[in-house]
Amino acid sequence: MMLSSNERDFLLASLKSSRSNDDTKAVQRADGRALLEFRRMNLSLRRSLQEHQSECELQLGRTRVLAVVSGEVVAPFPDRPTEGFLQFQVELSPMGASIFEHKQAHKAWAAELSRIVERSIRDCKALDTEALAIVAGESVWAIKCTIHVLDHGGNLVDAVSIASIAALMHFRRPESLGNESTLIPLSLHHIPVSISFCFVQLDSVHLADPVTLIDPTDREEKILDGSITYTFNSFRELCAVHKIGGVSISTDVVLRCANIACAKAEELTEWLKEETEKADKVAIEQRRAFLRGKEFLDASVDALSVHKPAPLDVSGLDKAMEELVDFKTLHAPIPLREDSETQEADVKQLMASLEHASEGLAITQAAREHFHQLTQTVHVTAPPTQTKHSVESDSDEEEESVMHVQSEFSKSSEKQPAPAAQDVDMESSDEEDLMAAIKKKTSWVYLLVRSSDDD
User: Fold this and answer.
1) Rounded Cα–Cα distance for residues 152 and 93 (Å)
2) DSSP, res 323
3) What per-residue confidence (pLDDT) applies to 347?
4) Looking at the DSSP assignment, which residues form a beta bridge with residue 183?
5) Distance between CA atoms of 61 and 72, rounded to whole angstroms?
6) Which of 87-96, 196-205, 295-304 bottoms out in mean pLDDT, i.e. has the lowest?
7) What's the CATH number for 5-292?
8) Which among 91, 77, 161 is positioned nearest to 119, based on CA atoms?
9) 355 vs 368: CA distance, rounded Å
10) Which of 14, 72, 354, 426 has its CA 20 to 30 A from that of 264?
11) Which of 254, 252, 229 is nearest to 239 (CA)?
12) May I have one GO cellular component term (predicted)?
């Protein structure tokens, strides 16, 4: 960008008025700022959800730069097996300004900006490179910061330096390889901030000190006679000083500029911490939404207090519990407690079925009449205990054999009688068979009726 003679004279005339005015906060510049006043600064921080990358877009007046920090795992140097890498690279393209169209000129200026940032951040040990080691001698993290100048509106040194340190503060890397769920920040010991001072020599004989101003615009840079850059941290420690050529300045000017830079660095450090904390909260919410596959919203306490659940109606709870624990119908297909009439009807029905079944048995008439008399009454007495009849065999050895009669109602298998027991009386066997069947069929009826009588 070329500066006309009228514009140059106007800028110099506005600075000459500062000699007669000792108030540094008065309006003495063409854009309405004081000599030691920054332009408005905006910061936009972003973090990649899938890659290890963070971005910082800084806008300082009309100057816009984009710093991109990325990380990858590489092998370390053999002589430094436990140290990672930190590299800076400044890219100047014709998109930022027309003066960057000449490759040779903008390459030299880009290299100069890269060296300033490296001295301000890497050489002052702001980042612990040993904390980037994964396995000593095998793998370490290589952090690369690339700064793209999107629009050159003046004071690229401060813009590039502040954007670089902000992007490093916002960067996150995995705690260990293969564990992408846990991200940790870089190990930054302190936050270095660069402040540049520019000088304009108004006296042709160079007897008086030049006019000092900070954050020059691209038009003001056309009339500058020199500059100096200080790098301070929040602990009031001087990290780096950079000055190449230009007008000579006295020690008083150097010390005065250093004190001003120290105060400005403290203010910018607090502002950077606030902005990175806000951006980190937003990035965490976005990562949660990305991992869950849906929008993640944290409901506040006030929002939850608005929608209170309705109270539960427990008026019918006691009645429901009584029905639930009713032992009369619980886990039973029929009621367990019946009246006497129902019990007598069930017993009569059982006796009738037994009488009908006894007609198919080959028993004597006396036994059949005895069974009919038994079925006429509900009260059944316990049958007498039957003794087993043992028979003697014709052989030399005596064997005790018990004959079990298998009826059509019995589920047990029939045991064949011994051949020596064929002389047992048939009439006696039929009676035993009938009494065994009656005993099995009516024993539980006797117990049930007896319990009913006791009640």
Assistant:
1) 10
2) H
3) 63
4) 174
5) 34
6) 295-304
7) 3.30.230.70
8) 161
9) 9
10) 14
11) 229
12) nuclear exosome (RNase complex)
Question: What single string gives the DSSP state of each residue in 65-108?
Answer: EEEEEEEEEEPPBTTBTT--EEEEEEEE-TTT-GGGGSHHHHHH
pLDDT at 358 over 80: no
Residues 6+ apart with CB under 8 A from 29: 14, 15, 35, 213, 220
Determine the pLDDT at residue 86: 94
- The whole-angstrom separation of Cα 259 and Cα 251 is 12
Element (H, E) at 10: helix 5-16
Strand ranges, E, within 388-441: none
Chain region(s) in the chain for CATH 3.30.230.70: 5-292
Q: Report, as an integer, the average pLDDT of 90-105.
A: 79
Among 27, 32, 30, 26, residue whose Cα is nearest residue 222: 30
What would the two tokens of residue 161 be? Answer: 């330096």
- Read off the pLDDT band of 25 (50, 70, 90): low
Cα–Cα nearest to 375, from 390, 361, 354? 354
Q: What is the 3-state secondary structure (H, E, C) of 185-251?
A: ECCECCCCEEEEEEEECCCCCCCCCCEEEECCCCCHHHHCCEEEEEEECCCCCEEEEECCCCCCCCH
* Separation between Cα atoms, residue 89 and residue 148, nearest integer Å: 9
Chain-centroid distance of CA 247 in Å reads 58
pTM over the 0.85 mark:
no
- Do residues 277 and 269 make contact, with C-beta atoms less than 8 angstroms apart? no
Which token pair is 408? Answer: 């059509």
* ∠ CA 374-336-328, rounded to 5°: 165
Q: Hey, what's the torsion of the CAs at 50, 51, 52, 55, to 10 degrees?
A: -100
Helix-helix angle 340-358:365-375, to 10 degrees: 170
Give the rounded percent of residues in the chain with a pLDDT score beyond 70: 61
pLDDT tens digits, one per residue of 187-204: 999 999 999 999 988 876
41-47 and 179-185 beta bridge pairing: unpaired
Cβ atoms within 10 A of the Cβ of 316, count? Answer: 8
User: Mean pLDDT, the chain, as a whole number?
Assistant: 76
The identity of residue 3, as a single letter, is: L
Place of tokens 């053999």: 78
Nearest in space to 160 (alpha carbons), one of 72, 74, 85, 96: 96
Max avg pLDDT among 129-133, 357-361, 368-372: 129-133
Give residue 238's pLDDT: 93
